[in-house]
Design a protein that fits this description.
The protein has 179 residues and is of the alpha+beta class. The chain has seven helices and seven strands; from the N terminus they run H-E-H-H-H-H-H-H-E-E-E-E-E-E. The chain starts with a helix and ends with a strand.
């Protein structure tokens, strides 16, 4: 039958696995590798471009929430120390871990992952051994005519052509791109 290949994929196909050291840019590096795989590397996929995309999507509401989480001493928000404005936060988000060190840059969080998923219209499947929530699905939001994200499609069924990136975070490698 013609459909047998679709129902039973070849068993010898192995996904690519790239191990990435915890450097502050690890999520962005994993995404750069994944996005570059199909069509080759392009500046549109660069870590600095992705950090710029995340910074430009931050709003006063984002700044206020991060400030509150920092005041409450929530884990992962120490980077807000001394930041007094949205523009200062955006500037810090733009800093690359490979340039300033892992402890002086802002690591990707849920906001950054959702922003990147939407910007590149890719579904992120995240396996995080470090978290109590081991499996996360981050679906891209639809992008309207104004270029801004619209409604989330997280409950919509995945289409056969939906680009997917599987990310695995562990204590050992931090991020590994599988797929």
């Amino acid at each position: 039958p013609q459909n047998s290949a679709r129902k039973h994929p070849p068993q010898n196909i192995r996904p690519a696995v790239d191990y990435i050291e915890a450097c502050g840019d690890c999520f962005y590096l994993a995404m750069e590798l994944a996005l570059s795989e199909a069509e080759g590397w392009h500046p549109f996929y660069a870590v600095s471009t992705m950090r710029e995309v995340v910074a430009s999507h931050m709003t006063q509401e984002t700044f206020d929430l991060y400030s509150l989480l920092h005041r409450q001493k929530a884990e992962g928000f120490a980077f807000m120390q001394g930041l007094e404005s949205l523009e200062a936060l955006r500037k810090r988000v733009r800093l690359r871990g490979q340039q300033v060190g892992a402890h002086k840059c802002v690591w990707a969080d849920g906001f950054a992952m959702e922003t990147i998923a939407t910007h590149y219209q890719v579904l992120l499947l995240v396996v995080d051994e470090r978290s109590s929530q081991k499996f996360t699905r981050i679906a891209p939001r639809s992008v309207g005519e104004n270029g801004r994200a619209g409604a989330s499609s997280s409950t919509a069924p995945m289409s056969a052509t939906q680009p997917v990136v599987l990310l695995h975070a562990s204590q050992r490698d931090h991020w590994a791109r599988r797929g």
